[in-house]
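Standup, Tuesday
Yesterday: got the pipeline producing structure tokens again.
Today: sanity-check two examples.
Blockers: none.

Example 1:
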Amino acid sequence: MCPKCGNEPESVDHMLFHCEQAVRVWLLSAFRFRPEEMQIARFEEVWNNLGQKGNKKEKWDVLHLFAIVCWNIWKARNAWVFRGVRMKETRICSIAAAEFHDFCNAVTVPQRD
């Protein structure tokens, strides 16, 4: 069973999209979506769908942000399971946003005059 909500068997898809805390994180994140309304079933479906829209830079930005939000949901799950620390959804989102900002700054090539 899911160690966070106890409602369903633990799986990657449940942990990232269907667990109660994950649902709240996605709603508070820059994506602002409700996984249950989008009938999200599998990680691969979301990844492939996000990679279809926009120009090359927009696609990469969206995919990077998505990966960072997923990573922070995973880290919050591990904090709970291994240390008994429950992270608030707002904290998970703010950490993900800061990491995305840092990532964008690290990979951006400065423009020359």
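Example 2:
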Amino acid sequence: MSALRAEDKAENEEERQHASETDTSCTTTAKSETTKDTDAESPQSRKCKLSPDRERPSKVAKRDIEEDASSASTSVPSDLTTSGSNEKDKDADVNRTLDNTALVADHYNALEEKGLSQRNQSRIVYMRNFNNWIKSMLINEYVVKVRQGKSFGASLRVMDMCCGKGGDLLKWKKANISHLICADIAQVSLEQCQQRYNDMVNKKGSKDRGFAPIFSAEFITADCTKVRLREKFMDPSMQLDFVSCQFSFHYSFESLPQAECMLRNAGESLKPGGYFIGTIPDAYDLVYVFLPLLYIHLKKDLSKG
């Protein structure tokens, strides 16, 4: 029994020794290979290498960062970049705006001049009368305020933006102004406005002839939302006491630059203490009227489906 135990111990000792030698040789081989690889690499690449599994997330993260950077660069607002795509977008916006401008001008140019009797037969005659009353009240109220700081007989210069066919000429005549600038996008409408003014000047039996001459006037065909009107004045240095834009200012809200241009035209020629008055539709009332109609149409469409 003792002899067998001694043999077993001897075999175990040999196995342990063999295993340790194997591990030592493997370690030495791995170390030598690592040393060779390290020597072959440049000093810049002697960094701690990661396993493929650990290297992959860093590469993915790097790619994601690059994609985010590229997407961020393309998401900059068009007014702050000069890339080709943004230039194309700007050109498209300009073309669309030009198309809308032409549509508005063509619409008003196509409207026929009708006499008073025909206008009284219109379906919206009462709304027109109401609008005229509003304009008359506004003009009278603020003309009085402008005259409060003036001496008797002082000149009163006015600009009527989006004047149309001159529906407010009589109002300006009653206000006893000295000079009027009429500006409108529709050339035909402006020509009709000028013809109305000429008829007022040349009207026989007028109480103004020989006593208080009617105001002088100039006429400008231009889009008030895109063109600097002051540059088209007969006297660009002229300062105005009063600027009016009646039921047309909402056209400028097509874009921010147009609204800014409209406001600049309204304000840059005003004297200190002058007034700008304007009227626009009430958006809340329009939505209040429109929503029930939209609900009815949607309900019909859903019932058909």
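Quick observation on example 2: The chain is about 55% helix and 10% strand. The radius of gyration is 42 Å.
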